[in-house]
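<context>
A single protein, sequence plus fold
<entry> Chain with its tokenised backbone below
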Amino acid sequence: MKILIVEDDITLAKELVRLCEKWGFDALYLECFQEVDKQFEQSGCDLVLMDINLPSYDGFYWCGKIRRFSRAPILFLSSRDQNADKVMAMVSGGDDYVEKPFDTELLLVKIRSLLRRAYEYTQADREYIRENLVYDRNQGVLLYEGKMIEMTKSENRILSLLAENKGNVVEREELMRYLWSTDEYVTDASLTVLVSRLRAKIADHTGGISCIRTRKGKGYYLE
């Protein structure tokens, strides 16, 4: 697991990196606090340690921005001990709050708990299509390296049925009936278009991964 540290006290940020690596995690810290959300997205990190007092915009602001596209756990670290700050941390999308100065063992417990809750407990609901390409059945989202690939409702339903039957052919008629159950009428031709668009979308976001195969005259299957 990889942890992103958003802390403008560079001495503390480096100490947090050292601690995380000691505990067996990969970690990195930011030196620039512009576009924190984009830097997080590019980092591929699984969890964020977020300070509140940051240059330009505070941690609440950046937490809200990250929540627009990611469900990765965000743990606030702050010397601010007012209940209002703790409430704001949760309202903005944070998962937990640790006051500075913090006990390192408590921090480790919090990090492991958040990672376990976010990732390990949902393994049964996740279909690993390829390395780093995961379909989360429970939440109905497709993730590549932790980043969400936006899908239409129809694309999502097609992928969910293929994931449920991974390795086995799902006949075209079954896919169309499955889509009709949502009051969306799909013809044979429009199903072909939907599957083609879904394939292209996955390839575009993953650097060319191809995972939806065609069984000529029958249907499709997820490889």
Summary: The first strand starts at residue 2 and ends at 6. The mean pLDDT is 89. The chain has two domains: 2-118, 125-222.
